[in-house]
Amino acid sequence: MTKPAPKDWILGISPYVPGKSAADDGRPLVKLSANENPLGTGDAARAALAAATADLATYPDPGAARLREAIAAAHGLDPARVIYGTGSDELLHIAASAYAGPGDEILYVRYGFSVYDIAARRVGATPVVAPDADYATDVDALLAAVTEKTKVVFLANPNNPTGTMTSREEIARLHAGLRPDILFVLDQAYAEYLDGQEDDGGLELAKNASNVFVTRTFSKIYGLAAERIGWGYASVDVIDVLHRIRAPFNVTTAGQAAAVAAVQDTAWIEASRAHNRQWREWLAGEVASLSNHGLRAVPSKANFLLILFDGKLTAEAAMKGLWDEGFATRWLPGQGLPNGLRITIGTEDQVRKVAAKLRAMAEAA
Ligand code: PMP
């Protein structure tokens, strides 16, 4: 019998695997598998969201004017050049759809964010993966992988799942080495976790260059993952193109209101950043002390650590052992890291329990 035939490249897509919140037997777990804010959501954002649910019958502001203005004011940007998406995921997808298609190449690094592969295949483009340098981005390898078919380059900075950071100088060098007709998508989902001096200069580049699209999210430090709001910044021309294909009414009324409050809540942002830095460095130190058992943490500037298990204790066994302590983490065999476990930095109590369990398992292995 005939049936609707999907495009053959669609069948080449492996669906996105979300972070687990339960063990294989269904036990609910504390979710350290999706890089959410362990402190939750700030009071100001929560209150704004609650107030905005009074009118549910009316469509949201399609132009998200207050949200664009609040983002622009917080970052010194032109509100007309801020675009918003149903999560930054939507923005990554529309960037790929607008600039690439069958016969084109979309380039990113090995151990890059898994949505890049889906975004490339979804539009029929060919995903091209450049080798890493000890899990970090290798700008020379990326530049060497550019061909005349390259239309889009995706780079997350800090990167997920590695947490590694590409410096401002290296980002500038990468941009300078890309042809101006290639769209450089700099995905800054974790940028709010950086100290000011660690900034990679992406927004400054996007202000001045015609081919840079920076994306950000409210899902991480702002604690609004449930509301699905991302934003991006680029030239007037790129923003005009992207608006043509974003979904209408793609950010909800309550989400817009909460995000406006969240972007202004600097106390919440700073507290979350300080918490993350303190406990990420503490956990990295604990892992370093287990190096004689084959454990190593990749240097991270994000709100998670990628831990590599190259001794008797395997990443899979560590993941299952952490289930027994009540924690979901992210094992990454599907991303070429069967020896890697990505652990979101939780509350102090959670981080201490995770470290103690890792130590007990490594020493008993
Ligand atoms: N980029 C990176 C690097 C991410 O890790 C994530 C979330 N896991 C996203 C983009 C998408 O986030 P959201 O759609 O929630 O904005």
TrEMBL record:
GO molecular function: histidinol-phosphate transaminase activity; pyridoxal phosphate binding
Listed InterPro entries: Aminotransferase_I/II_large, HisP_aminotrans, HistidinolP_aminotransfase, PyrdxlP-dep_Trfase, PyrdxlP-dep_Trfase_major, PyrdxlP-dep_Trfase_small
Pathway, per record: Amino-acid biosynthesis; L-histidine biosynthesis; L-histidine from 5-phospho-alpha-D-ribose 1-diphosphate: step 7/9
GO BP terms, alphabetized: L-histidine biosynthetic process
N6-(pyridoxal phosphate)lysine carried by residues: 220
E.C. no: 2.6.1.9
Cofactor(s) listed in the protein's UniProt record: pyridoxal 5'-phosphate
Pfam families reported in the protein's UniProt record: Aminotran_1_2
Broad enzyme group: transferase
Subunit structure: Homodimer.
Family: Belongs to the class-II pyridoxal-phosphate-dependent aminotransferase family. Histidinol-phosphate aminotransferase subfamily.
Listed name of the protein: Histidinol-phosphate aminotransferase
Organism (species): Sphingobium indicum (strain DSM 16413 / CCM 7287 / MTCC 6362 / UT26 / NBRC 101211 / UT26S)
Gene, per the UniProt record: hisC
